[in-house]
Amino acid sequence: MASTPILSPTTTTTTSSLVHHHHQSLHFCKLPFPNSLTKPSTLNSNRPLTRLHVSTPTNKPSNTTATSTSTSKKPTTETIYFDGGAHYGDLLANLILGFTLLWLPLTLAAVFRAFFLRYRFTNLRVTVISGLTGQDRSDFSYKVIKDVQVVPRFIGEWGDIIITLKDGTKVDLRSVPKFREIAKYCLSLAEKPAVLKETGTKGF
Q1: Per the domain annotation, does 85 fall within a domain?
Q2: What's the CATH code of the domain at 154?
Q3: N or C: which end of the chain has fewer CB within 10 A?
Q4: Residues 94, 81 contacting (CB under 8 angstroms)
Q5: Pick from 158, 159, 138: which is nearest to 149 by CA?
Q6: pLDDT, tens digit, for every residue of 147-169?
């Protein structure tokens, strides 16, 4: 006679608890989705809108670069290339020849140039100062220079610089030391070919 298996209470409880636990696991995996996720337009309509305001338009170039470029082209400081009077040899030679009455007017002119005439060449302009107290002053820029010529004096130790301006004015600088170097400096700043034109005859 076949015997019927008898399950113990422990085995029955374990089986039933496993089934119940499995049933609960399946039950919790089935999560309901809220209706708000299926309708994004409803959520977006309730949110406040934020607008960005741009102070500088992107289609207009900034003026900072143009200002810095124009500023860099202009020299910031004035540099002196030469500042002095007539060559001392001009005064000495005219004093020696001044013992003759015929040369006396030229001697007086040389004395005036030595004590009351001053030339100044900078990177921005040419300045001629004259007068007993220096009250007479003439300034002009290199941009208005049309031509520069030189006239050697004595044996070429000093010379005259003749500067012709664009309006036809001629500025005669007498007995200038290092006249060739100064004339080339004027031509370079005036953006002219640095070819000196020597005119006149050598003398005092």
Answers
A1: yes
A2: 2.30.29.30
A3: N
A4: no
A5: 159
A6: 999 999 988 889 999 999 999 99
